[in-house]
Amino acid sequence: MAVATSTTATLGADAYYMINGSIPSTYDRIHTRHNIRLTSGSHSYGWYPWMYLNYDYTGANYNMNYFYGTGGVAGVVGNYNGSGMFLYGVPDTYQNANVWGVIDMWFLNPSDTTFQKAITWRSGFINYSTTAGYHWLSTGTALWESTAAITSQYLYSGSTSAPLFAAGSSMTMTGYDLSG
Strand, coil or helix: what is 99? Predict the structure, then answer.
């Protein structure tokens, strides 16, 4: 029988990062959901925070591809040998104040120390108002070119001053031990 363990962290104040550290080495799958909003910005289709694993942000160890759609525009983007995973579709102050975005990520075999790590994600938000109707949806895959077990996730807003993750933003991690 699979065993699932969840933890949630919610920001009490604006911050430029969210950390999920001390991830146990017993998980076969990790599911992370971020409910977030940024404190500043003027991007009609949101902003892109960066995800780093095990504080690996200096090497060219991330490859990713994602599809996106904004209602009238769609496309595909690839980023190879990057220093992190950028996750589009987080609303900033261009959207209504009550619009929050979701980044939903799955990490496969995070405890394995033989193979590189595969990640899938979806992100997006919908903002309909009397003056504008902006929305964003993306889905993608990434490969972290490391055989190290994933011990931490670091979500960075893109700047230490602005934009920041708004107070109330949260990160929920659920780890699955399939061996039971």
Answer: coil
Residue 180, judged by CB atoms within 10 A of its CB (0-12, 13-18, 19+), counts as exposed
Residue among 30, 27, 14 nearest 159 (CA): 14
Q: Which has the closest alpha carbon to 116: 129, 107, 106, 105?
A: 107
What's the CA gap between 54 and 93, in Å, rounded? 30
What is the CB neighbour count within 10 angstroms for residue 7?
12
Residue 101, pLDDT score? 86
Neighbours of 169 (CB within 10 A): 24
What are the tokens at 134? Answer: 């902006």
Rounded CA gap, 88 and 109, in Å?
Answer: 24
Per-run averaged pLDDT (10 residues), the chain, 180 residues: 85 94 91 90 73 93 90 84 85 75 93 95 75 75 96 91 90 88
Q: Which pLDDT score, from 0 to 100, does residue 12 have?
A: 97
How many CA atoms lie less than 13 Å away from 122 in the CB half-sphere?
4
Query: In whole angstroms, what is the distance from residue 70 CA to residue 95 CA?
Result: 14
pTM for this predicted structure: 0.88
Tokens standing for residue 53: 């694993």
Task: Look at residue 180 in the predicted model and tell me its pLDDT.
Answer: 63
Long-range Cβ contact pairs of 70-77 (< 8 A, separation 24 or more): 70/45, 70/134, 70/135, 70/136, 70/137, 71/133, 71/135
